[in-house]
Specification:
The protein is α+β, with helices and mostly antiparallel strands. It is built from four helices and four strands; from the N terminus they run H-H-H-H-E-E-E-E. The protein has one domain: Nuclear Transport Factor 2, Chain: A, CATH 3.10.450. 21% of the residues lie in helices and 27% in strands. The radius of gyration is 21 Å and the shape is elongated. It starts with 16 loop residues before the first helix and ends in a 35-residue tail after the last strand.
């Protein structure tokens, strides 16, 4: 029993594999994004290409996508939000994070909002948008390593609370 890489908790054979193999179609846009992620982990480039919207399919750099999939160690998919994409819908926006390690073993986070469209009754990935990311803002001034520790010990921060 192999668990599906998409993170659904189901067996691969009962989750994304039938969609990737063409035995079933993705009824919802979320099922398609999960199957596309799984296809990246399996190196199923035919599925990636086939599920890209026909009107934008020529924009894909197939060799680069295949190299990215092949040279990456896929660490997980996290669906952050789903707007639309149900059986009776014609469009969807799904924000997700895909985590992976590259060939040099560096960790990466691929964060995007995928735009999906139903075309002739089938879901396709159409485009990607950059999601709004809130910038972190510090409430208090940053504690420098060589400044006196804020705890009042009289030691430098790097020799006091920074080592805790």
């Amino acid at each position: 029993m192999t668990q599906c890489p998409c993170g659904s908790g189901l067996e691969l054979a009962r989750c994304c594999q039938p969609i990737i193999n063409g035995e079933e179609k993705a009824e919802r846009a979320e099922a398609l994004i999960r199957a596309r992620y799984t296809a990246h982990t399996l190196g199923a480039m035919e599925f990636i290409l086939a599920t890209h919207h026909p009107t934008t399919r020529s924009d894909i750099d197939e060799a680069a996508t295949a190299r990215w999939a092949r040279e990456s160690q896929w660490l997980g998919l996290e669906i952050l939000s789903v707007d639309g994409g149900e059986v009776d819908d014609n469009s969807a926006r799904i924000e997700f994070i895909a985590r992976y390690r590259d060939a040099a073993r560096r960790r990466h986070t691929h964060h995007e909002r995928g735009v999906f469209e139903k075309y002739h009754g089938q879901w396709y990935f159409r485009d990607a948008e950059v999601p709004d990311v809130n910038q972190f803002r510090r409430e208090a001034p940053k504690q420098g390593r060589n400044e006196p520790c804020a705890c009042g010990s009289g030691k430098k921060y790097k020799k006091c609370c920074a080592t805790s």
